[in-house]
Amino acid sequence: MKRCPQCNRTYTDEALSFCLDDGSPLVSASAPSSFDPSATVQYPQARDTSPPPTIAYPGGSAPPPPPPPANQPPPQWSPMPPTTPRKRSVWPWLLGIGAVLVVLGIGLVVLIFVIAKVTNDNGNHVANNNTNTNRNANRNSNTNANGNRNTNSSAANSNTRSSLTSFTDDFSSKAWSEGTSSYGRIWYTNEEYHMTSAAGKYIVRYAPDTSNYQTENSTIRVGARSIDGNVSSTGYGLVVHGFITKDGQFEDYAFLISNADSSRYRIVLHKGGKETNVVEPTTSTTIRTGTSPNQLEVRIRDLKLDFYINGQFVTSIVDEANFRKGLVGFYDSGPGEVAFDDLEISK
Fold it and tell me: Which of 24, 70, 344, 338 shows the shortest CA–CA distance to 189?
């Protein structure tokens, strides 16, 4: 029989060596009650811990494992040491910041380049505008000088021919002259300007002698139609650079169409009392026949004159007579009646 010297609990199991309550070494119950810590304690012979031999049982089923020994002390618990947090590398942050700085630097360089290019383009544009302005000024100066050398009219006529203004005349008001002469008859009807010439003759009528009707460096358009479809082979049409000399001679260029038997156009020059073909009669499919209206157009730039019918280019000439400027007008060679409407003069 054994007992615990601390709690005096007794145990009958001789195999126990330690108290199950406080873990103190057990002593024999016959030993003196006083405990000598320095006394030699005899422990029983160590138990054989080798596993027992394997026993085969019939039926192939093994017996259940033996129950755990009674009064076995619980295992002692030891806390796990705290884990050390893993340090993160700073290299990803450095690389990201470096990439952002590189992108910003490239964007700044591109912005500076674009600003410099725009500034350079604006400078070139201003320089070109100044150059063009100087060229236009020189051209106008030369034009005025040539006009002064080639003008044989009075000072009043020269002043009325010196400027060009965008202008439209729909013939709703009677600004052009009317009347009858040995050459034919001219009059207003239904907001149109009508003309008919005497047999075997042609009639030319210039616009009022004002700056609105000047044709220098301008584009002139007018609608023209035959009233009865009775048109001579010499035709009718638009006159530009019209001018009357001191001796009463008409000088101009006339753009004429004939849509009677076949649709043709021609360009004539009036100078020195004579009518001369500059462009011989030429067949054109752009001319509308019968009483259908046709739009005649002349685009004048310096000495070059371009001619259009119903918006289609047909021919071009050079102002070899060096007229350069004058009044717009109309032409008819009869025997039928023609009408003009919607005159436009623009720069």
Answer: 338
